[in-house]
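Before going further, learn to read the protein records used in this course. The integers have meaning only within a learned vocabulary of local backbone shapes. To see the layout at work, look at the sequence and tokens printed below.
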Amino acid sequence: MLGWLAVTPAHALGAAEPGKEPVVDAGACLAASEAHDADKVITECNAVIDNGKAAKSDRINALIARASIFITRGETNRAIADYDIALQLDPALANIFNARGELHRKNGDRPKALADFAAALRLNPEHASARSNYHALALELERLGAQMAVAGRPSFNCATARRAVEKAICADPELANLDREIDASQARIVHAATRPAAIRALQREQDAFIARRNAAFGRPGYDLKRAMQDRLRRLNGADGR
């Protein structure tokens, strides 16, 4: 929901307490927000936000409006700060939890984003955007966790490595990752092949690469990393990935 976040009418957030009329007219802030007039939003809404005697609902609306301006300007952290204050004023705003979560995710702070999506769902289990965001991020974190679990490990068991080239791969996390990616790409392409002859040809090509790698490693001018990168590019280019 990054962008202009709709400002909630004051009566939907809760009117001011009886007998306590707001000392600031928030109408100009709301009008500027509806008109998407960024400069006026900042000017008019600042006056409402900075006035501690303004009605809580008006301050929340002003914070939401100003946060929307910060989002359009790419000032994510300032928008998050406004959402922080809005949620301090009213911790039951599911939309704002979800919106703040999207900003945290944009900033790369996945744990905070997931916590905000979860908070939005606790407040409103039917919140479609928060539910979609939560599930998508949970899957992303699961995938990242799986990748981290094998990071720096090649496709073979280093404990049984005997060849010098295999030991070199095991000793270098970047080479180990390349080896694992080559193996995964080879497996994907073989799995996608339908004709037995094509599968045999793919396996012969991979066997030939490994044989060349084993024979050339250690010779003057041989660049193992470059050879592995070239092989990976060739494999990924075979199916357009």
